[in-house]
Write a structure and sequence with these properties.
By secondary structure, the protein is of the alpha/beta class. 38% of the residues lie in helices and 21% in strands. The protein has helices at 2-11, 16-28, 33-41, 45-52, 81-89, 108-116, 144-154; strands at residues 62-67, 70-79, 98-102, 126-130, 158-161, 171-172, 175-176, 178-181. The longest helix is centred in the first third of the chain and has 13 residues, at 16-28.
Length: 182
Amino acid sequence: MRDELVEQIVAAPDDLALRLVLADALVEAGDRRGEHIHLEAAGLRAQAAALAAELPPRHPLLALTWRLGFIERAAVIGDALDVVALLLRHPAARLVEVLSVSVEAGERVRLAALVAARPRPSLLRRLEIGAPAIGRQWLGQADADYVAPVARTAGVATVVTGDAKLIRAIAIDGRPARVQSR
């Protein structure tokens, strides 16, 4: 039942009633994400944020933004594709919409394969990639040759990188990809 509800939520991510039904099922199963959904739906943002900080997946190189029991945005800070794999396997990541990852050039194909293998259906629409560097400056260091191998394989609608002028047309899932600069 939970898988069916998650698929319905993927199709209608703003349907609060569906999320509340899922919340009850999660609470009944002992999954604290159900409590998170209830707290946010009740407008108790501080309590929801405190609970989200305790929810898995947790890792020192992972920064997460939660929304109604699911990860909405995720950033992998550092070159850590094992953390990307951990994240994308987790049920809370089914609704992640934006994934930011720093990745060495030699690991781009592996990143693309990890993203392409994520459970479907998925809400992942935006992948931000670049070479590892201090802070988030890595986004400004990628060019078309850096992004193209990931964009072709990953199956997301938008790939974000440094300089959009350097990006040539890239197709994702047979459709032209939107490639933007940050």
